[in-house]
Amino acid sequence: MSGHSHARTVKHDKDLAASQRSKVFSKLAAEITVAAKQGGGNPGTNPRLRTAMDRAKSANMPSDNVERAVKKGTGEDQTGNLEEFLLEAYGPGGIAVLISGITDNKNRMLGDIKQILSKNQGKMVEGGAVRWLFEQKGVMAVKSPLPKDELEMKVIEEGAEDLYWREDGMLDVYTKPTELEKIKNSLRASGVSVEEAVIDWVPKEEVIANQKSIDAAQKLFDELDENDAVQNIYSNLKG
């Protein structure tokens, strides 16, 4: 499997400008709130919350912000009502796009996303028209001082379905969604560093586009990234 096309909007760059950092923290807080709302405020028994809090820690998000987000999710702080969304669209060159996020104003969010798509050779489609081209997978980014072949053998023995070496030297490990937490914990216990472990939408097949479509798609992804409600963007564009 090649590395799937996924633009994770919450970046871990510790040198982000203040305005960018504020946007990142806002998106992380929304994810923490929804995770706590769905599975409770204890990260020890709520894998999604634990993952969100790990990402917040990696991004240097203040602990007070994290605590407020958890309380908001568990109902201790009754401010606002967040809901998740997953939108389907076609982008430049006919690529398939999934847009996931969290919003407190669905109508405003839909209007904003539709406008971004229309400006960038894209259009929203009815539910199911694009989603069938993707499947959910557990995805981990791991690294280890072990030689490549030994690390590959280790993650396969632990139950990985597929893997892909990235240009930055990290290994993307693909699992069944239900196996993600177990394999992550097992790898960490054996000394492998798991930088991130999430449930992602992975395209069943990737499409090759010309450079013009690739550039247009990147412009679309960048503009979607700027939207406060958007958490993740997935496409079947190769590369």
Helix/strand order, N-terminal first = EHHHEEHEEHEEHEHE
Name the helicity range: 40-55%
The largest sheet is: 5 strands, antiparallel
Give me the CATH superfamily of the largest domain. YebC, transcriptional regulation domain
Structure description:
- The protein has 239 residues and is of the alpha+beta class.
- It has three domains: 5-74, Orthogonal Bundle (Arc Repressor Mutant, subunit A), CATH 1.10.10; 83-132 and 204-235, YebC, transcriptional regulation domain (Alpha-Beta Plaits); 134-203, Alpha-Beta Plaits.
- The chain has helices at residues 18-39, 47-58, 63-74, 106-119, 148-158, 180-189, 211-226, and strands at residues 5-8, 83-90, 96-103, 123-125, 134-143, 162-165, 171-175, 193-203, 230-235.
- The strands form two sheets. A five-stranded antiparallel beta sheet has the order 1-9-3-2-4. Strands 6-7-5-8 form a four-stranded antiparallel beta sheet, with helices on one face.
- Strand 6 (162-165) and strand 7 (171-175) form a beta hairpin.
- Helix 1 (18-39) runs parallel beside helix 3.
- The radius of gyration is 18 Å and the shape is globular.
Mind sketching the topology for me?
Blueprint: E1 5-8, H1 18-39, H2 47-58, H3 63-74, E2 83-90, E3 96-103, H4 106-119, E4 123-125, E5 134-143, H5 148-158, E6 162-165, E7 171-175, H6 180-189, E8 193-203, H7 211-226, E9 230-235
Helix pairs in contact: 1-2, 1-3
